[in-house]
Specification:
single chain, alpha/beta, Rossmann fold, eight-stranded mixed sheet, six-stranded parallel sheet, 16 strands, 46% helix, Glycosyltransferase, UDP_glucos_trans, glycosyltransferase activity
Length: 472
């Protein structure tokens, strides 16, 4: 019996990283019935994923033991804890890198000792040390890029040739930067870690240096690095061509939930919002969610809810429990003001976006949310804040024409009138709204085909799996 391919999937402990990584892990298992997968994130995140068994070091999630969860250490007891100290995240990242590399190496060695040797390491974008761990043991590795390939191309060009021109024009967000294979990008729409975090005093400077290290790590791979990307070829033809000369880039997405991972971070959920949606007409509901990290301040929330009410359309708005707690007495006020909509602390986003009643998604443009909306054919109102979100919004509005970009005021607040305008532009009766809806329906068909059997992403995933199997 020939050895079984065994993928070790390592990821950063934020929900927006864990979700696509776990989805990919399950797709690898589906694509290769003989494969094994070990999924690893930090111990704190592991406990969040499996709160019923806080002391378990491992957990098999399927009946035949092909998927195993083994956490690694980030050198802390509590993980990253939000703090007013601007240096706290950078300090956490230093611990994460040092302890994570040691702990992941121990996991690889322990798996080999158990007779379950790793044949391919797959890691997400803030773990450049994972490639070093693999290389030191003669194991091939692949980066799993969980943002659009356009953003990967921007980082590639920045660190190889464009850092100077971007640095020279940081004072002018409207200055347009031209990079090979990409549409011209205003400096203000580049990833925020390139415009806001290059200064060592910035709270997220460690992300900037980590991505720099990641690009350098990829350049060291011989003969070429392998990069899996959570996108499909049809969405980003030009960007793929721009980086394809430097790396073996395989678009394998959109990688969407399947099976148990859909509710891996599920909170108390009585699904009454689904009953509420069932009672609404088709394409009538505005769905609002700003992701698993973004905190909405009181003024922002009041303006948002006023704009939603003034739109006259039913709406479902997600405000996380921790965000509500930070607003203190605002919760009572929120409940008193709701007439046309409901506010929930959590929902199954893919399930909501797939509901026939949903006609628009007001989103921060995190890449997972963008892909889920594209796959559901739902137009978007883009309210980007940081990281890749501004570039993602450009893709949504300019490249694919499936949404509208909301403009915030000089204080960064999305005003009620702008909320109302954008919803009308995405859901109204004018030709512009009809065009957005038409394009959303077209792109839904494109990504569905790419993900389906024999589609471009399906073929790329099989190519990767076959390569891993042949290397065993």
């Amino acid at each position: 019996m020939s050895p079984r391919p065994h993928f070790l999937v390592l990821t950063f402990p934020f929900q927006g990283h864990i979700a696509p990584a776990l989805r990919l892990a399950r797709q690898l298992l589906a694509a290769a019935p003989d494969a094994l997968v070990t999924f690893s994130t930090t111990e704190v995140a592991h406990r969040r994923m499996f709160p019923a068994k806080p002391n378990d070091g491992a957990k098999d999630s399927d009946e035949d033991g092909r998927l195993e969860f083994l956490p690694f250490s980030d050198g802390t007891e509590a993980g990253y804890v939000r703090s007013a100290d601007l240096g706290s995240f950078n300090a956490y990242m230093a611990s994460f890198h040092a302890a994570g590399a040691r702990s992941a190496a121990e996991i690889v060695d322990a798996l080999a000792a158990r007779g379950r040797p790793v044949s391919r390491v797959v890691y997400t974008l803030l773990l450049p040390w994972a490639a070093d761990v693999a290389r030191d043991r003669g194991i091939p590795s692949a980066l799993y890029w969980i943002q659009p390939v356009s953003v990967f191309a921007i980082y590639h060009h920045y660190f190889h040739s464009h850092a100077g021109v971007v640095a020279d024009h940081l004072h002018d967000p409207s200055f347009v930067v031209e990079m090979p294979g990409l549409a011209p990008q205003p400096v203000g729409d580049l990833p925020s870690f390139l415009t806001d975090s290059t200064d060592p005093s910035n709270m997220f400077h460690s992300v900037f240096t980590t991505i720099r290290d990641l690009i350098e790590t990829l350049d060291k791979e011989s003969p070429r690095s392998t990069v899996l990307v959570n996108t499909c070829r049809e969405l980003e033809v030009g960007a793929l061509a721009a980086v394809g000369a430097h790396h073996d880039v395989l678009p394998v997405g959109p990688v969407l939930p399947s099976g148990g991972d859909a509710g891996i971070f599920k909170q108390d959920d009585d699904a009454k919002y689904m009953e509420w949606l069932d009672a609404k007409p088709a394409n009538s509901v505005v769905y609002v969610s700003f992701g698993s990290l973004t905190t909405v301040a009181r003024e922002h929330l009041e303006e948002l809810l006023r704009g939603l009410e003034e739109s006259g359309r039913p709406y479902l708005c997600v405000i996380r429990k921790d965000n509500k707690a930070a607003l203190a007495d605002a919760e009572t006020k929120v409940d008193e003001e709701l007439k046309n909509g409901i506010v929930v602390e959590w929902c199954d986003q893919v399930r909501v976006l797939s509901h026939a009643a949903v006609g628009c998604f007001v989103t921060h443009c995190g890449w997972n949310s963008v892909l889920e909306s594209l796959a559901a054919g739902v137009p978007m109102v883009c309210v980007p804040r940081m990281s890749d979100q501004r570039t993602n919004a450009q893709l949504v509005v300019r490249e694919w024409r499936v949404g509208v970009r909301a403009q915030v005021d000089d204080g960064g607040v999305l005003r009620a009138a702008e909320v109302r305008r954008c919803i009308d532009e995405a859901m109204g009766n004018l030709e512009a709204a009809a065009e957005v809806r038409r394009m959303a329906a077209e792109w839904k068909q494109v990504v569905t085909k790419a993900m389906g059997k024999g589609g471009s992403s399906d073929r790329n995933l099989m190519t990767f799996v076959d390569g891993a199997r042949n290397a065993v």
